[in-house]
Write a structure and sequence with these properties.
Elements lengths: L3 H4 L5 H4 L16 E5 L2 E5 L9 E2 L9 H6 L1 E4 L3 E3 L4 E7 L13 E8 L2 E7 L8 E6 L7 E8 L3 E8 L1 E3 L1
Parallel strand pairs: 3-11, 5-12
Antiparallel strand pairs: 1-2, 4-6, 6-9, 7-8, 7-10, 10-11
């Protein structure tokens, strides 16, 4: 993904470095400050700010209740055949139930093959449950399946699952 596209239209990477960038449904992966060093852009997450950057589980052996409620859990085969459809399920609140009321709910869930966008579902409080089942096919993957969800009170969270694409 070209960071200039969608993040800061009309700005060069150098001009965007160090700026706070707006969030929208196409760029939530890069919320936060962008730092430039030796022509390499990286994102910096503020540890104390759940709305800055993407939240991830810090210690898989000792997850907090906050992490258990917000982790998007991906269920998918570990290996798939190139071009064949397979089912992916993403559940938020699988490890510990997440609230689903107007003041606290999951706004959306997105699925990526590493950083390549695959699908998105927008949700509403009470009437929807933060679970997605979708069939996708991949020709290749540059890493993992990644799921992102956004809680209206606790920001964006990432979960991932290893996957291999075979011929």
């Amino acid at each position: 993904m070209d960071l200039k596209q969608g993040l800061a239209p009309g700005l060069t990477v150098k001009e965007a470095a160090g700026r706070k960038l707006p969030t929208n449904k196409l760029n939530h992966l890069f919320i936060g400050e962008i730092k430039m060093s030796s022509n390499v852009m990286t994102t910096v997450k503020c540890e104390e700010d759940l709305f800055c950057g993407v939240n991830m589980v810090k210690d898989w052996d000792n997850m907090t209740d906050l992490e258990k409620k917000h982790l998007p859990v991906i269920t998918a085969p570990k290996s798939v055949r190139k071009g064949e459809c397979f089912e992916v399920m993403i559940e938020v609140g699988k490890l510990m139930q997440h609230p689903n009321e107007p003041g606290h709910y999951i706004e959306f869930i997105e699925l990526y093959a590493d950083h390549t966008y695959l699908a998105r579902m927008d949700l509403t409080a009470r009437r929807t449950s933060p679970i997605i089942k979708i069939c996708v096919s991949l020709d290749h993957v540059h890493g993992k399946l990644r799921a992102y969800e956004r809680c209206n009170l606790h920001g964006v969270w990432e979960g991932h699952a290893e996957i291999e694409v075979t011929d």
